[in-house]
Write a structure and sequence with these properties.
single chain; alpha/beta; Rossmann fold; 2 domains; 7-stranded mixed beta sheet; 13 helices
């Protein structure tokens, strides 16, 4: 099979979908790997490193034209829609529930699109989302601490405080991978952390793992209103695989927040879970102010630390890429968790959560091939 690795074009997206080590593993298995020139530069991988392992380094047009399988990091942007075609598989973070134009482009082109974020493992986990969720969760605290600095428009509060001075109050919405990593990071810096969850078992796990140092709170509107009003930093980490994130923090709640406080909505790539995070920002201009609160809603947060992110992502995705290269779409038939990653096929929505997001018909992929 021919695997194509284009250079990412999203604002400040420096990750690459395949490392030279990954390209090597595919080449020795008899596959051809076409890499767009400079695709790995942002992550510290030169064109020569890809050439040394047998990959073909070429231009964008050739990569998209030759490849049977395109592996990317981020969703296609509008200028890339022209490359979508029916006889090609795409394997990347799709997040199409929050991007109707991209969803329509996939349906119209009849592209076979497999999403990292909806692939599941035997335990129902999300193995290809986890590494980037870990990065984003930890980064959310770093970003929040930066926003809270007075020079950056914040209230001038230090997350961990100092002896005799209260630490910052950090509210984390969701106790999944992103939320837990954010909570751990904030707690490690000495902040007063609350994690809002609805899953009693998950709350018990967090309490046990952290010896009660991170407080868990049942998530309902009453508890949220009080916590949001008192928070210095709110981190949105709600995830419903494949679907749009629910807006659990209302505009009225945000209006009650302290001036100079901060919001980091990590769920923005699925539409965001905070009402006032109603549009995405970029690494160039990451924040905006509303009601005196500084909002951060960059959808590709891990792109700011591309070396770490690329290595972590490739560790997780490479075994799946190899399966696709070796067996084609039949690889999905052999692994129900991998099949969960299929979002569109032959002009149909094959992921129930995505179909429901657009009120479109869902087709069971097992009936299509």
């Amino acid at each position: 099979m021919i695997i194509g690795v284009p250079k990412e074009i999203k604002n400040n997206e420096n990750r690459v979908a395949l490392t030279p080590a990954g390209a090597h593993d595919l080449v020795v298995r008899g596959h051809a790997v076409y890499v767009e020139t400079m695709a790995g530069e942002g992550s510290g991988f030169s064109d020569d490193e890809y050439r040394e392992v047998g990959a073909i380094v070429t231009d964008k047009e050739e990569v998209f034209k030759k490849a049977d399988l395109i592996v990317k990091v981020k969703e296609y942007l509008e200028e890339e829609y022209k490359y979508l075609r029916q006889d090609q598989m795409v394997f990347t973070y799709l997040h199409i529930a929050a991007d109707e134009s991209f969803a329509n482009a996939l349906i119209d082109s009849k592209t076979t699109a497999i999403a990292y974020e909806t692939v599941t493992d035997k335990n129902g986990g999300l193995p290809l989302l986890t590494p980037m969720s870990q990065v984003a969760g930890r980064m959310a605290v770093q970003v929040g601490a930066w926003i809270l600095q007075k020079a950056n428009g914040g209230s001038g509060i230090l997350l961990g405080g100092v002896p005799g001075v209260h630490p910052a109050k950090v509210v984390v919405l969701g106790g999944g991978v992103v939320g837990f990593e954010a909570a751990r990071m904030a707690n490690g810096l000495g902040a007063d952390v609350e994690v809002f969850e609805v899953d009693q078992r998950r709350m018990a796990q967090i309490d046990e793992i952290t010896n009660g140092q991170i407080h868990t709170v049942y998530s309902n509107s009453y508890n949220l209103k009080k916590a949001i009003r008192e928070a210095d930093l709110v981190i949105g980490a709600i995830l419903i695989p494949g679907a749009k994130a629910p807006k659990i923090v209302t505009e009225e709640m945000v209006k009650t927040m302290k001036k100079g406080s901060a919001i980091v909505d990590v769920a923005i790539d699925q539409g965001g879970c905070i009402a006032t995070c109603d549009h995405t920002t970029s690494h160039d201009v990451p924040t905006y102010e509303r009601y005196g609160v500084n909002h951060y809603s960059v959808p590709n947060m891990p792109g700011a630390v591309p070396r770490t992110s690329t290595l972590a992502l490739s560790n997780a995705t490479l075994p799946y890429i190899i399966k696709l290269a070796d067996k084609g779409i039949k690889a999905l038939k052999e692994d129900p968790g991998f099949m969960d990653g299929l979002n569109t096929y032959d002009g149909h929505f094959t992921c129930k959560a995505v179909a429901e997001a657009f009120d479109k018909e869902y087709i069971d992929p097992d009936t299509l091939f």
